[in-house]
Write a structure and sequence with these properties.
The chain is α/β, with parallel strands linked by helices. It has 2 domains: about 100 residues, no CATH class; about 280 residues, TIM Barrel (Alpha-Beta Barrel). About 55% of the residues lie in helices and about 10% in strands. Strand 1, helix 6 and strand 2 form a beta-alpha-beta unit. Helix 3 runs antiparallel to helix 15 and helix 7 crosses helix 9.
Length: about 400
C-alpha cells in the first residue's frame, strides 16, 4: 500500500531547524560522538574496554557521563532531567521520562522500580505540556523467567509463582490506575515474543479498565517486524469498538531481531519476525494507514526514526483533514537521535516527544551499549546522523 508523499511543510534535511537547539560547542561534541560511532570497530573496541573498566572498578564514569551518556540520557535522576525537559520544551518537543535501569531481578528491585515510575507519573502530571507520556517495561517490575513460564507453561505454575505473578499484575494495575487518576498517558513497552503475549493480555485489560469515557490513557506497543502484529492491532480495535473503550497503540518496528531469530532457530519454531526489512516497512506503513482510518477508537504514537513513515503519517493527516495538533496522533524518537525528524515535525506543528532515558550511569550502561551497537547495525543510521551534523557544521561556517 503506497501513498505519494505530498506534504510540503516538512523537510527532514533542514538542519538549521534540526540543530537549532545545539550551540556550536555542543554540535562539535555531537559530531565527534557520531563520527566515532560511525566506525564499527571503534564501537566494538570501545564497548569492550568500557565493560572491562567498569568490571575492574576503574574511574571511567566521568568520561562516560560527558560523552555517550550526555548524548543519549537526561541525567541520573528525574531532577537531573529538568534541563533536558526545558530545552526540548523550547522547541515544542515533549519529554517521555524513561527509567532505564536494567539487570535487577528481585522483588525489592521490582517494588523500587514501580515507585520510581510512579514518580515519573507525578512529574508528568505536574508538567503536562512538557511531559505528555510516562512509560514502563513489565520486565522492570517482574521476573522475565516468570513471565515466560506464565505465557508458555501456565499449568505448571507453583503456588509461589502464582503469587509472584499476581504481584506483577498488581504493579501494572497500580501504575496504570495512578496514571489514569492524574490523566497521564502511559506506554507499556514491547518486549521479546516469548513474554509479549502475557504483556499484551495485561495491556488490553488495562485499556478496558482505564481507556473509557473517550480517554486514551494506556498504550500497548506493537512491533511491526513481527508478522502477526498488524492482525493483532486490527483485532484489538475490533474488540475495543465492540466493548466501548479506546485502544492506545505505540507503533514501532522492533528491537530484538537477533535474539528472536537465534531463539527461534535454537528451539526450532517458526521465526516470529518478517523475513526482510522490506516486509517490516510495508507492515509498519500499513499500520499507519489502518490507524488513521480508525481514529474513532484508536490513538497512536509513531515510535520511529524512519523518515518515510513519518512523512506518510503527516501526509495522511493532511489528506484526512486531521489537525497537526490532534491529540490522537503523536510522533516519538530517542533523545540524541533523529533530531532532523523530531525538531522539523515539532516546528511544523505536529505532536512530538523524545524518549529521555535516565538512571545512575553504571546502571544505564546496558542501554547505552545497545544504542551504540544499534547505530552501527541499522542500515545507514549512524551515517545519516553523522552526515546531517556535518552538513549543519558546514552551514554554520558559511553563515
Amino acid at each position: 500500500m503506497k501513498t505519494a508523499i505530498q506534504n510540503r511543510s516538512l523537510n527532514f534535511d533542514d538542519t538549521s531547524i534540526a540543530f537549532a537547539h545545539q550551540s556550536d560547542s555542543k554540535l562539535r561534541k555531537t559530531y565527534l560522538i557520531f563520527a566515532l560511532m560511525n566506525q564499527n570497530w571503534v564501537v566494538k573496541i570501545g564497548t569492550f574496554f568500557i565493560k572491562l573498566a567498569i568490571k575492574l572498578g576503574l574511574p571511567v564514569k566521568l568520561l562516560i557521563s560527558n560523552t555517550i551518556f550526555s548524548q543519549f540520557c537526561g541525567g541520573e535522576s528525574i531532577a537531573d532531567c529538568q534541563k533536558t525537559i526545558n530545552s526540548l520544551a523550547k522547541s515544542k518537543v515533549g519529554t517521555i521520562l524513561d527509567f532505564s535501569v536494567e539487570g535487577e531481578d528481585n522483588e525489592n528491585a521490582f517494588d523500587a522500580t514501580t515507585s520510581e515510575i510512579l514518580k515519573t507519573i507525578d512529574k508528568a502530571a505536574g508538567q503536562p505540556q512538557q511531559i505528555p507520556f510516562s512509560v514502563f517495561k513489565v520486565s522492570g517490575i517482574g521476573s522475565v523467567d516468570l513471565l515466560e513460564k506464565v505465557q508458555e507453561h501456565p499449568e505448571d505454575l507453583t503456588t509461589e509463582e502464582k503469587s509472584a505473578f499476581e504481584r506483577v499484575q498488581n504493579r501494572v494495575d497500580k501504575l496504570c490506575g495512578y496514571a489514569a487518576s492524574l490523566n497521564v498517558r502511559i506506554f507499556i513497552d514491547a518486549e521479546e515474543s516469548w513474554i509479549q503475549d502475557v504483556i499484551d493480555e495485561m495491556s488490553y485489560h488495562m485499556m478496558q479498565k482505564y481507556n473509557t469515557a473517550g480517554k486514551t490513557i494506556v498504550y500497548n506497543t506493537f512491533q511491526l517486524y513481527r508478522w502477526e502484529s498488524l492482525e493483532h492491532l486490527a483485532d484489538a480495535c475490533a474488540l475495543a469498538r465492540k466493548e466501548s473503550y479506546r485502544v492506545g497503540a505505540k507503533l514501532v518496528r522492533g528491537a530484538y531481531i537477533e535474539k528472536e531469530r537465534r531463539r527461534a532457530a535454537e528451539l526450532e519454531y517458526k521465526d516470529p519476525i518478517h523475513a526482510s526489512k522490506k516486509d517490516t516497512d510495508a507492515d509498519f506503513n500499513k499500520a499507519v494507514h489502518f490507524s488513521v482510518d480508525n481514529l474513532d477508537v484508536l490513538s497512536i504514537c509513531l515510535g520511529t526514526h524512519n523518515e518515510e513513515s513519518s512523512l506518510l503519517c503527516a501526509d495522511l493527516m493532511t489528506q484526512h483533514n486531521i489537525s497537526k495538533s490532534d491529540e490522537r496522533i503523536w510522533f516519538a524518537q530517542l533523545l540524541g537521535m533523529s533530531d532532523n525528524i523530531s525538531y522539523n515535525l515539532a516546528n511544523a506543528g505536529y505532536n512530538v516527544a523524545k524518549y529521555v532515558p535516565y538512571g545512575p550511569v553504571e546502571a544505564v550502561m546496558p542501554y547505552l551499549f545497545r544504542r551504540a551497537e544499534e547505530n552501527t547495525s541499522i542500515a545507514g543510521q549512524s551515517s545519516r546522523e553523522f552526515l546531517l551534523i556535518k552538513k549543519e557544521k558546514q552551514r554554520r561556517r558559511g553563515c
